[in-house]
Amino acid sequence: MIMLDGAHSACAWDIDPRAAQPGIFPADQLPQLQRTDYVQHSNDSAWMANPKAPLSGFSPVISQDNIGLGPRARFALQRLQTLEQQPITVTDLQDMVMDNEVYLAGQVMPDLLTFCAKHLGADAATLQPLCTSLKNWDQRANLDSGVGLVHFINLVQHLQQIPDAWRVAFDPAHPLTTPSGLAIDRAPVAKALRAAMLASSAEVSKLGQTRWGDIQVSGQTPIHGGPQELGIYNAMQTVPRADGKREVVSGTSYLQIVSFDDKGPNAVGVLAFSESSNPASAYSKDQTQAFSEKKLRPLPFTEAQIKADPHYQIHRVKE
Q: Which keywords annotate this record (predicted)?
C-alpha cells in the first residue's frame, strides 16, 4: 500500500494536461499490450500480462515489475502456455475457471508427502489420517473434492506466515516458477509445519464432513472454488459459520466468456450470487444453483435473440 502525506504539497496529485481528468495518469503512461496469442490479468501487476512481452517502467501506483506473482496469476499463465499452441476455445476458458485446479498443490505437495513419510516421529498416529487425506485428495476444489483440501488450506495459510518457508526463493529471472517447494529440512519450517498439521487435524476431526461441497456453501447451496492464495482461479472467500460450514462472502461473481465469429459475439455467463436479494423471489438462488452445477447460460445479443427469450416482456414506465 502506498501512503501519501496530505499535509505536504509535494504529495499532491500531479496535474498532467494530457490526462482525461486532473489527478490521473495520461494514457501513454499506462500499461498497454496488444497480442495475437493472449493477454491476461489476475489481480496482479501488469508486468506479466504476457511473459513474452513484459511490461515495466511504470509508476508503482500503476504497476510494479520484478516482484513475485500471486499463485493465481502463475496458474493462469501456466494454463495459457499449455493452450497457446492451438486456438483457445470457450471450453478451454471455462475449464480454466471451473476445473478448480489448486496450483500450489503442484508446488508443495511432494514436500508435504515427503514430510508425512519421513518426519512425523512421535506424532505419526495422530497425523496419519491427515497425511492419508492429502495423498488421496485430487488437488482440486470441486464439490466432491476430499477433506484433504481443508487440510491443505490450513497448512498453506499457516506456512505463508513463516519466513523462508520456500525451498526455492523468488527469482525475478524466473517469475513463473519461483518461489517453489517447501523447505522441510529447515528446522523452523519443519516445526511450523508439524504445529500446523496438529492444529488442522484437531479442527477437521470436529467437522463431520468429508466433501468440500458439504463445507463451502452459500446458504444451503454447495459452492466450488477456494482461496485465491492457493492459486485457485475460481477464487472464493469465506467466513466460518456456527455449524462448522464456510459461508461464501465474496469471490467469483459475474462470469462471462465471449467468443466472436463472422456473425458477431457469442456469450455465455452466469451471475453467481443471483439477481434478487429477496429470498422469496424465484431469482434469489437460481443462478447460484447454476453456478454450483457449472452451468453457463447463453446470453442474447441481437434484437432477435433477445426477443426469442421465452420470458421476454415489455414494461412501459411513465413519469
A: Hydrolase, Signal
Q: Detail the DSSP E strand segments found in the chain.
A: 166-168, 180-182, 216-218, 221-222, 236-240, 246-251, 254-261, 264-271, 297-299
- Give the pLDDT mean for 95-121: 97
**277 DSSP assignment:** -
Distances, alpha carbon 176 to alpha carbons 15, 78, 279, in Å: 37, 8, 44
Give me the pLDDT at residue 12, please. 86
Q: How far apart are CA 155 and CA 63, in angstroms?
A: 31
Strand-pairing partners, residue 265, are 260
Distance between CA 233 and CA 288 in Å, rounded? 18
> pTM here?
0.91
Give SS3 for 268.
Answer: strand
Q: Residue 139 has which C-alpha cell?
A: 488437488
CA 153 to chain centre: 13
Q: Where are the domains of the chain?
A: 13-67, 103-251, 254-307
Q: What pLDDT does residue 10 have?
A: 86
Residue type, 257: I
Instruction: Report the phi/psi class of residue 69: left, alpha or beta, with left for phi > 0 and alpha for psi in -120 to 50.
Output: beta
Domain spanning 103-251: CATH superfamily: Aminohydrolase, alpha-helical knob region (1.10.1400.10)
The answer to whether the CB of 105 falls within 8 A of the CB of 139 is yes
pLDDT the model gives residue 97: 96
Write the pLDDT tens digit of every residue in 278-305: 999 999 999 999 999 999 999 999 999 9
CA proximity to 100, closest of 74, 127, 128, 75: 75
Cβ atoms of 63 and 226 closer than 8 Å: no
